[in-house]
Amino acid sequence: METFKLEIDLMRPLQVRLVECKLVLLALMWMQDDENQQRNLPVDYSSPLLVDNSEWQDRSFATPDVEHFRKVSNTARIGAWDEMILLRLSHYIIPHVNCLYDASFYALVVIAMHLIDAELKGIFVNSSDQYFARRLVYESFEILDKHQFGDNLKFGDEIYFTGIEEKDSLKWGMLLNYLSFKLAALGEFIMDTSDIDDEVDNEYDDLDEIEREEFDRKYQRLPADYFQCKPYIEKCTDRSELVSRLVQRVVYYLFVGKEYNASRLDEIMSIPVTIRSTVTFQSNLAIATYRIGYFITASGIEEWAEGKNWFLCKAFSSLMPFYNRGKKDAAEL
């Protein structure tokens, strides 16, 4: 019994990270889909991030928690996701670095909520799979929660799901809120202020002595520059490099799981490709898939079946030729 418990405990970080990587890819799909509908995009373009699901709004802290994320460009968002997922894949307990990072991570769940509401209205982020976002979220919840009753899924306030075809948007809103807590995705946002806010709210000055002591005790673990977003935003300028690196990092983890080693990412990124490179999510996904096939074969690293099968069999089956080509090219060396 103890051995079984230990195995479960060791596997849980893998499962949590699998879910997080899936949500990053879903968010990048959302961003690319929005940008495809725009014309003459400015370099600081920011895809609107709004959710009108009443159940989500009533139960979550979504509005203040993603406020910082709403105020930055897509390029800065990609940079924040990359640095945040780097931490998530390398640490079991994630340190608070900056409010922008926390907001960006929480935004992954917000974006999923937005896409599910869109699917329920007949607007699909993946034209070949009308249940893509719902399936991803439903399976993610199954992975994290494990509270299953026959063919039904139970969570929170005794609400049951029988499948991804559920049409009740309020149930989805409740599930997404619960998922956000399962991921511990809530950030430490105080008074919704940072150096990118239009008006800095000085509510701290209005606190009485007891309230101020409680405030200081609760947030003393945060770094002194937690609310200084501009230094992080200013270094996120090369959109092509940022999206390429983020996609490759996520694909790398999905294919190798516990064999993931952040220090080898540059090695993977240096693998030459003949695929035409652009800044789009789709082209970077194809390049990342080729490179990981090449890397796994050349390095003799064991594949992680669960992550690989989800990626190539369920989510992006059209990328199988790129993976096979990468393996073939490496084998011929």
Give the SSE map.
Blueprint: H1 2-36, H2 54-59, H3 62-65, H4 67-70, H5 74-90, H6 99-120, H7 132-145, E1 148-149, E2 152-155, E3 159-161, H8 169-182, H9 209-219, H10 230-234, H11 239-256, H12 265-269, H13 281-299, H14 305-315, H15 320-331
Antiparallel strand pairs: 1-2, 2-3
Which key phrases capture this entry?
15 helices; 333 residues; 2 domains; disordered N terminus; 3 strands
Would you mind describing this structure in some detail?
59% of the residues lie in helices and 3% in strands. The chain is mainly α and 333 residues long. The chain has 2 domains: 2-190 and 223-234, no CATH class; 239-331. A 3-stranded antiparallel beta sheet has the order 1-2-3. A hairpin with a 3-residue loop joins β2 and β3. α5 runs parallel beside α11. Residues 1-9 and 147-151 have low confidence and may be disordered. The protein has helices at 2-36, 54-59, 62-65, 67-70, 74-90, 99-120, 132-145, 169-182, 209-219, 230-234, 239-256, 265-269, 281-299, 305-315, 320-331, and strands at 148-149, 152-155, 159-161.
Distance between the termini: 47 Å
Q: Cα-atom Rg, whole angstroms?
A: 21 Å
The proportion of strand residues reads under 5%
Count of helical stretches: 15
Low-confidence stretches: 1-9, 147-151
What is the overall shape? globular
The secondary-structure element order is HHHHHHHEEEHHHHHHHH
Number of strands: 3
Largest sheet: 3 strands, antiparallel
Secondary-structure content class: mainly alpha
Share of residues in helices: 55-70%
* Total count of domains: 2
